[in-house]
Amino acid sequence: MAGLLHGDRIGNWIDGRRVDPANGEWLESVDPSVGKAWIRVPGGDAQDVDHAVAAAKAAFSGSWRSMPATQRAGLLRAAAVEIGKHAEELATIECRDNGKPLAEAIAGDLPSVVEMMNYWAGAADKIHGETIEIGPTSHNFVRHEPLGVVGIIVPWNSPLAILAAKVGAALAAGNCVVLKPAEQAAASILTIAACFDAAGFPHGVVNVVSGLGEVVGDALVRHPDVRKIAMTGSTETARRISERAAPTLKQLAFELGGKSPNIVFADADLELAVPGASTSAVFTGGAGQTCVAGSRLLVHASIYDDFLERVERHVAMHVRLGNALDRQTTMGPIAFAAQYEKVKSYVELGRKEGAEIAFGGRFGPENFDGREEAEALAGGYFVSPTLFRGATNDMRVCREEIFGPVTCAIPFHDDDEALAIANDTHYGLAAGVWTRDLKRAHRFVRDLEAGAVWVNAYRRIHWAAPFGGYKESGYGRDSGLESLRGYQQTKTAWIDLS
Ligand code: NAD
């Protein structure tokens, strides 16, 4: 099977064609496992955004808007097949770009991208309106129509999986899309775009423009023909987008950051809670670069010391740091140099604030003493799994999103205190609760201020279940039928019967 990626650079995807950026500028994308550039992607600007939005607008008012929904569903199904055919190549591109372990991308991310397309194919031709009984003089009915052109902006940590949830829903609802990947990891999204056209989508329905957030992202946000921006990223960027989208009154949906509590009670099944706390989200493949990372580990004081020792043993036994493309690797590097420096600075900050490193706190080559590949990995952005003990919730390391493999363990003494600490954050994305007590589990599900609560589990995410945040973790939902409404507008029709 022919590969999708050829040569050492990949252009934008606009109107069914691979095109160079209009300004001729390219950005280098660095392989974080080795710290070297591996591909160039467009450093585009507003000209490319104008081109892509015009193509999307033309496609929308061309054949796409009037295409029977069942045909649209068939195209989404065909896209699933096309993506499935190239899954390994897409996974490899993504892992090279952002350092996620290949084994995880092949077993998790790519199969879920395929399933999301199938899920949304199933929904595309089940979009129904309603009739409303008004009285004998009027016939009233409601249509759920697409918005038109939707801009989708995604981050670098899991580009394809995050993209697929939004794109699947947007296309199923009948919109055309312009996608803006993160400048640090754009290659997998630039590549996957061709799969939609290969599956038979009319040209211009799916477009990708790569470039800096402040340039390409901003042009998309301000564009008068873009009716909605669905963005996953940081809370700071979402604030900026909100301001700049105001003049054109765009709809907005945001999936943002978190500082999620993972709460372990004394009655928890420790056989589950130890791996749950150690490998779920923070010390896994993406090296804690996941929005739902359980980065505040709240542990009942009576088991605090023992629990942290068990977590340390588990991490030592199960986490293997290494090149993302090595299938033995269970935890990859930090995705790019600036983020690596940020994580390092937070580890330093934690020490200064008075937390104590229980384990970890090693960087780069320090992690590879005695390993054969030490020389090759010396330039990589590696941080060992790091746990702070004796942390308190007022420390900045407990309040700010670090987005790296760093967890702060905070002791608590009773349920009320656990709940108060858990909710004492401006974020509200996710939370975990480990207990055998059913009443306690239900109380915490009810009272935790978070968009997702896992009981005796962590980081379960599925395309059929709504996903999104409370408070400053965002609004709007990805996944599940609920998210479809976010890509539609409602029209009420009145027919006079008098
Ligand atoms: P970021 O906010 O810096 O960038 C996200 C995207 O926004 C990128 O494509 C970027 O180019 C673009 N962007 C930046 N400035 C822009 C502007 N002015 N206008 C338009 N677009 C702009 O975030 P990041 O550092 O790439 O990603 C990490 C963040 O994403 C973390 O906060 C993490 O928690 C969050 N995240 C959330 C979820 C979720 O589902 N809730 C999932 C993954 C990551």
What does this structure look like?
By secondary structure, the protein is of the alpha/beta class. It contains 15 helices and 20 strands. The chain has helices at residues 46-66, 69-85, 87-98, 102-124, 159-172, 187-198, 213-222, 235-245, 270-279, 304-318, 337-353, 374-377, 396-399, 415-423, 438-447, and strands spanning 12-14, 17-19, 26-31, 36-42, 130-135, 138-146, 149-153, 176-180, 206-208, 226-232, 251-255, 261-264, 296-300, 356-359, 386-389, 406-412, 430-434, 452-455, 474-475, 488-496. The strands form five sheets. A seven-stranded mixed β-sheet has the order 14-15-16-13-12-17-18, with helices on both faces. Strand 1 and strand 2 (17-19) form a beta hairpin. Helix 1 packs across helix 7 (213-222), helix 3 (87-98) crosses helix 4 and helix 9 (270-279) packs across helix 10 (304-318). It starts with 11 loop residues before the first strand and ends with a strand. The mean pLDDT is 96.
Brief characterization of the structure:
This protein has helices at residues 46-66, 69-85, 87-98, 102-124, 159-172, 187-198, 213-222, 235-245, 270-279, 304-318, 337-353, 374-377, 396-399, 415-423, 438-447; strands spanning 12-14, 17-19, 26-31, 36-42, 130-135, 138-146, 149-153, 176-180, 206-208, 226-232, 251-255, 261-264, 296-300, 356-359, 386-389, 406-412, 430-434, 452-455, 474-475, 488-496. With 498 residues, the chain is of the alpha/beta class.
